[in-house]
Write a structure and sequence with these properties.
alpha/beta, Spore Coat Polysaccharide Biosynthesis Protein SpsA, Chain A, 8 helices, globular, two-stranded antiparallel ribbon, 13 strands
Length: about 270
C-alpha cells in the first residue's frame, strides 16, 4: 500500500519552533516526528511513500534519506490539507494510507489498522477529551457517522486519531469528492473534514487503538507533553521491529512553564 504524508502546513501554533523548520522535523526524544512515522511504515513493510511539501519543503527533502515521491503544494499558505491531498490524486486512486505529519504513534497502531478487515478505516481512541483539539467521532458501533472538533459529550464516542486507510474504491470516492471541492473553489478545508463528509454515504469504520501511546503535536504544550511521554526506545529506527511493549497510557497535559527541552529544536 502507498502511504501519503501531508507535510505542507506552516504549523503556526508551534511558532517559534516552526519558524525555520517544518513541524514534522521537530524532535521528540532525539528523533524527528517524520522519523517516527518512517519507522512505523518500515515495521509494516511499507516503502512506497508520497510526501506533500510546502513550508520549508527543501529541508524535508534534505532530511529524507530513503526514496520517496515528493509533491509540492505552492499554495500551502492559503490552502488546507484537503487541497494537499487533492494534489496527490493521480497517485492514490488505487488505495492509500493517510498520515498527518504531526502524529507520533506506536508502530502497533499502524499494524492493527492494516490488519483490520474494514477496507476504509481510521484508528480511534475511545478515551475522549472534549476540551482538546482532536477530531471527535460520532459512531454507531464501529461505524463513524460524522467527525468534528466540537461535538456534544453525548455524541462524541471516540477521538479520530489516525492513521487512516482507504481501498481503491474508497480512494476514488475521495478523489471525486476532492475534485468537486476544488472546482467550487473550496481549497481551505481539512482532509479529515472531507473524510467525515464521505462517511455519510460510505462505510468508514473506526479501529480501536490497541492500548498504544500516541501524540498529536499542534502546540508547544503538545511538544512538551510528547517529549515527556514517549519512551526513549519507542521504536527501533534501524530495524523493522518494535522494541517496546504496548502500554496503555492516560493522556495528560503538562505545564508549558516547565523548562525547555533542548532536543526539541535540535537539528
Amino acid at each position: 500500500m502507498r502511504a501519503v504524508i501531508l507535510a505542507a502546513g506552516v504549523g503556526s501554533r508551534l511558532l517559534p519552533h516552526t519558524e525555520n523548520r517544518p513541524k514534522c522535523l521537530l524532535k521528540i526524544g532525539g528523533h524527528s516526528i517524520l522519523e517516527y512515522q518512517f519507522a512505523a511504515l518500515r515495521h509494516c513493510g511499507i516503502s512506497d511513500v508520497v510526501i506533500v511539501l510546502g513550508h520549508q519543503g527543501d529541508k524535508i527533502r534534505a532530511h529524507v534519506s530513503v526514496p520517496v515521491t515528493f509533491v509540492d503544494n505552492p499554495e500551502f499558505a492559503t490552502t488546507g490539507s484537503s487541497y494537499s491531498l487533492w494534489l496527490t490524486r493521480d497517485l492514490i486512486r488505487d488505495g492509500f494510507l493517510y498520515l498527518n505529519s504531526d502524529l507520533v504513534f506506536h508502530p502497533r497502531m499502524l499494524e492493527t489498522l492494516l490488519a483490520s478487515p474494514h477496507p476504509d478505516a481510521i484508528i480511534i481512541d475511545r478515551r475522549v477529551n472534549l476540551a482538546d483539539d482532536m477530531l471527535k467521532a460520532e459512531m454507531d458501533g464501529e461505524r463513524i457517522l460524522r467527525m468534528s472538533k466540537t461535538m456534544p459529550a453525548e455524541l462524541a464516542a471516540a477521538e479520530a486519531v489516525g492513521p487512516a486507510k482507504f481501498s481503491a474504491q474508497g480512494a476514488r470516492h475521495i478523489v471525486s469528492y476532492l475534485d468537486a471541492l476544488v472546482e467550487r473553489g473550496e481549497r481551505s478545508r481539512w482532509a479529515y473534514e472531507t473524510f467525515g463528509d464521505i462517511a455519510h454515504d460510505r462505510m468508514f469504520m473506526g479501529v480501536e487503538n490497541p492500548g498504544c501511546i500516541w501524540a498529536e503535536v499542534d502546540t508547544p504544550t503538545d511538544l512538551l507533553e510528547a517529549s515527556r511521554r514517549i519512551p526513549s526506545q519507542f521504536a527501533d529506527f534501524r530495524a523493522p521491529r518494535i522494541t517496546t511493549p504496548v502500554l496503555a497510557d492516560q493522556r495528560r497535559m503538562w505545564d508549558i512553564n516547565q523548562p525547555p527541552i533542548p532536543s526539541i529544536d535540535g537539528c
